[in-house]
Structures are given as C-alpha cells and as structure tokens.
Amino acid sequence: MAALSINNVYKTYANGTDVLKGIDIAIEDGQFLILVGPSGCGKSTLLNMIAGLDDITSGDIVIGNKRVNDLSPKDRDIAMVFQSYALYPSMTVRENISFGLEIRKVPKAEIDATVNRVAEMLQIKHLLERKPGQMSGGQRQRVAMGRALARNPSIFLFDEPLSNLDAKLRVEMRTEIKLMHQRLKSTIVYVTHDQIEAMTLGDKIAVMKDGIVQQFGSPQDIYDNPANLFVASFIGSPSMNFIPATVVESAGQIGVKVCDDKGCVVLPLPHDKAKLQQWVGKEVIFGIRPEQITDARTAHRDGLPEMSCHIDVIEPTGPDTLVFVSLNNTKVCCRTHPTEAKHPGQSMDLVFDVSKAVLFDPATEARIA
Amino acid sequence: MFKNLTVGRALVYAALLLVAIYYLLPLYVMLTTSFKSLDDIRNGNMLALPQAWEGGAWVKAWAEACTGVECGGMKGFFWNSVKMTVPAVLISTLLGAVNGYVVSMWRFKGSDALFTMLLVGCFIPFQVVLLPMAQLLGMMGIANTTTGLVLVHVVYGTAFTTLFFRNFYITVPDELVKAARIDGAGFWTIFGRILLPISGPIFVVCVIWQFTQIWNDFLFGVVFAAGESQPITVALNNLVNTSTGVKEYNVDMAAAIIAALPTLFVYMVAGRYFVRGLTAGAVKG
Fold it and tell me: Does pLDDT of B25 surpass 90?
C-alpha cells in the first residue's frame, strides 16, 4: 500500500493537443480515489499515465515516496483492472491469475497458495480451469479483479470496470469492490463516468473536464458545495435544477425571484449578504437540488418559503415521486413523498429549502454563493 | 428428400450443378486422359473413360519424362519446389506475424508510414522487381540457387503476410497487451504467450495463401533459377514444350496433376479453417 501524488501533470500529444492541463491530486495511503468526468475529459489518460502505459509530458507522479515517471509499468508495483477485463483468451482462469506471478519468478508453491487464496476470496474456485470464453461478464469481472489482487500491489487501478455489466450486477459488484477496499485497506484509483459509482465508492473524488480537475474533494463536499455549474450538473441524479433568476432586495432581505404562469415569489437567500449585494438586479443561475423542493410533510421544517405550482408531469420512482413544474420557463424537478404528490394539471404547494441552494454566474458558470 | 423442392429451389440446384460441372470438367478430362494410352487419346472421345486404365504415363511423368535435355521426370523438381516452398512459407509467415504484431500493438513514430509502405508492396507487379532482384541475388552470390528463390519469395510475401496479421491483431483489444505489460511481460513474452496462441486461424490463412502463391509461381522460378534448382512449375513448362515427335498428352496431364497436388492437399487439410480465418472477427473474452 502507498500514497499517491500527482503534481502539476501535463499531457500533450505530438500533434499539439493538450489532454491534461496541470493535474494536482494527492491521496493518502489506503484511500479510494475516483476520477470522474464525461468522455474525453482525460481521466483514462491520467490513469494510463499512473500505470506507465502513457508518457508524462511534464510534472511528476509519485507512488509511496518514489517518483515513477520513468519507471516501466512492471516496476511501478501496480495492478490494473480493465473495462474489457483483458483476460488472456488462451489461458485458463488459473493461468490468467498466475501469469503475472510466474513472470516475476514467484516460487510455484507460493503461486498456488496465492491463486487459491484469491479464488476463495472472490468465490471463483469452481471457475479456475475454465477459459474466459466460457464465462459470463460478471465472472470475467471477478477473474480480472482476482488477477489484480493476486499481485498484492501498492496501488490498484480500475478503468471503468463495471460499465460492461448489466444494471443489477453492476450494483452488486460495486458493493463488493467497496467491501474489498474496506477489508484490504488498499489504495485505489478508479476511473468512471458514472457519478453514482463515484459518490458511492470514493473517499475522494476528482471531477474532471477538458483536462482540468474541476473539483477535488470528498463526495459529500462535492455534492453540497459544487465549485461550478459543471460539477453541480454532473454530480447528482436526478441532476440539480438550474433556474435563471433575478436577484432582488426587499425589506433588507436578498432573494431570487421565481415565477410560474400564475405569479411570482421571492425566495430569500440565507447566504453571505456581502457576496450577493453586487448581484442585486442582475440575472444569476439559481441551483437547487430536487430533494430541496418538496412537500410540506417531507420538509417538516417551518419557516421555509412556499409556492403553489402547476404540475406538468409526475414520475413515481417508488420511494419518491418526482414532480415536474415550470419555473421561470425552466423545467424543474422536485422530489416529494408519494402520498403527498398531486396529479398533473393540479396545483401543489411546494416548500423550498434554500439553505443549500447555490448561485452561479451565468457568464462564467463559476460559483457565486 | 424432395419434399421441400419448389420450382425456385430446383432452378437454384440446377444452376449450382451446372457451375460445378463446368469447374470439374477440366479436372475430369485431365484425370481420365492421364490414364489413357496414346492410341486411346487419338482415337477416342475426349470425355470418354479410358478403354484400359494405364498408370504408365504417371510413372513416366514422375521419373522419366524429358524436361529439355534432362530426362529424369518431375521427381527432382518436385523436391526443389518443396525445398523452396516450405522455408519460404514458414519464414514469410513468421516475419508477417511479428510485423503485424508490431504495427498493430507497438505503434511507434512512423509505424503507420511503414505499414503503408508495406501495403504498397502488395501491389508491385512481379515484372518490376525482376532486374533489380537479379542484380541483388548476383551481388549476394545466391543467384540460380534455391536459397535465392526462398529469399525472393520471403521478401515478396512478407507484404501480404504482414497485412494479414496486422488486420487480425487490430481486432484484438490492445488492453490485452497493456494488461500483460503491467503483469511484467516483455515484447516476446506477450507475443509468444498471449497473441500466438490465439493466432491459429490467421496462420492457416497465411500458410495456404503463401503456399499457393509460392508453389504456383512461375515467373520468379524461370528467371531466378536455372537447371538443377528449377521449381516444378518451370519443369512442367519444359516438359510440355519438349517433344520428340509425338505429343504425349497423357504424360503432360499426369505431370500437371503432380504439380498441382500439393496445393490441393493443403486446401483439403486446412481449407475449412481458411474461410473461418478470413472472416474471424474480434477475439472476444
């Protein structure tokens, strides 16, 4: 196990394209780091650079206290699980798992012991003599993890390991990966484009876009305090509502004005007044998550601003019913209790919990408050 | 058997049968003629079966027929061809495998350009390289030898085999190579332990293709080999063109079949893998 730090890393391809533009990330020994972002954000490139499969244009990658920039993949003490599993097609599961150990000239008895230990841990003992072609996706996924585990490296690298699995299996394997991490206390770098995986698995998340880390922090921090509009929209499902609204000041209170087809309400903002003062009279983007607009029963707090809204559509999900209304001509999603939700065409009183609402500059998309 | 026979079906079968006969007829004529006596050939019908089956023409074609001034039959030249074809096929196929592995899995600066140049090699007509190749063989001191012919065929065939292997390996996910590199495997270990074991189909394609090309080649054989070292195709030509008054069609036919047998044999043994290899898609899992 080892800590990982990535210091001011750049990646520029020969044709001049900048893929990574100064990445700074550091995690401690035993932490679970998630690199998340839309496709093309550079997250896989960064993982390949940690693995040593891609060159680093400038900057340093340090594993433990060793600078690994110029080490080849095999000398970095890492193991990697790939999206396609990358199991060697001509080898049995046993051979797949022992291949790396064999090349490292580990004694035969020790290899056998390791294969058995790993197979037992992942419950793949009955598959040991099978070839990859004779297994299901979930089983291959397990074997791929087994191959990584057998090596007992200082860092595990996962490259979208669950994206080829069906939805149910994905959730199961997600829990298993988390369980494995809790048990082994291993350092893990995990690339995904799925924000739910990012939230559920990570100790630390780096949200990336266009080769830049947009925000680096704990899952809850990123969820509650997104650094900009992109992070706010990327993390969370259903995603945050972004309502264009004007900042107004009345009776010493600063708030945002939201209207539906029947009337307007000013939602007072509890944020730092000094920051908001300069935006009075100007348009901002008012960001509020679906669970922060709800029925009175779910909110069960007094003194929150309320508004009666016309319902366009409802989507029952079981535990909650998503109610869609229109505010400032923008579709807004609200998460309500199933028994409290009204039907489309009716009006419903919605409570706005503005304490965690966020404001963004419409021009720069940066966070205002 | 004829329960599902509709008019359309019947037409299709009739057409297939016709085409099959069209293709098999020359072989039939060759085979029957080779077993006829000369009198039988002169007096009989070309399509008729021999009046008496005689193997004499085969013995003569193999061991006694004259190819120019020599009268030792096809025997020696057959082995010449074997000695030329087997090493040339093996070397060019192995070279192609390594080349294909490099241009698909180990991209380096200029590897695409290199591959394009190799590709162009497939389109160079034989005639263009005759003179420079002759000069090269002369300079290397292997003109008119089987070794020289092997070299020519290896050089010429590598373009094709590289193309075959490259197109096969490009369908193999490169994550396999990445995984092996992380596991600590080097260039040759990855090739030998991971890629070669799944390359069976493409090896069959390459071997059949190269064997057919090299065994059947006439031009390089006639230009770059002389006398003793000539391959069988050249000998067949000489045998047919050497006449001592009487045209021995039965011997010509037997000799032609002898010359064609090895390729037929290779197709029969490996043929069913041929199509499978040509159409082999991604190696999943």
Answer: yes
Q: What is the Cα–Cα distance from A176 to A179, expressed in whole angstroms?
A: 5
Distance of CA B151 to the CA centre of its chain: 16
Confidence of residue B142 (pLDDT cuts 50, 70, 90): confident
Contact at 8 Å (CB) between A77 and A55? no
β-pair partners for A21: A10
CA distance A4 to B202: 43
Interface A–B counts its CB contacts (< 8 A) at 71
Cα A93 from Cα A109, distance rounded (Å): 17
Is there a contact between B182 and A83 if contact means CB atoms under 8 Å apart? no
Write out pLDDT tens, residues A69-98. Answer: 999 998 999 999 999 889 998 899 999 999
Instruction: Enumerate the residues of chain A whose CB falls inside 8 A of the CB of residue B197.
Output: 89-91
Residue that terminates a domain, selected from A234, A250, A267: A234
Read off the pLDDT of residues A34-81 as tens digits, 9 standing for 90 and up: 999 999 899 999 999 999 999 999 999 999 888 999 999 989 999 999
Tokens 């969820």: give the residue.
Answer: A223
The tokens describing A35, both together, are: 């690199």
What is the pairing mode between strands A293-294 and A306-316? unpaired
ipTM of the complex: 0.82
CATH classification of B75-278, choosing from 1.10.3720.10, 3.20.20.70, 1.10.1740.10, 1.10.10.10? 1.10.3720.10
Alpha carbon distance B169, B195 (integer Å): 8
Does A79 reach chain B within 8 Å, measured CB to CB? yes
Asked if residue B281 has pLDDT above 70, the reply is: no
Under 8 Å between Cβ of A205 and A222: yes
* A60 and A118 within one domain: yes
> What amino acid occupies position A21?
K
pLDDT digits (tens, 9 = 90+) for A277-325: 889 999 999 999 999 999 988 887 778 888 999 999 999 999 999 999 9
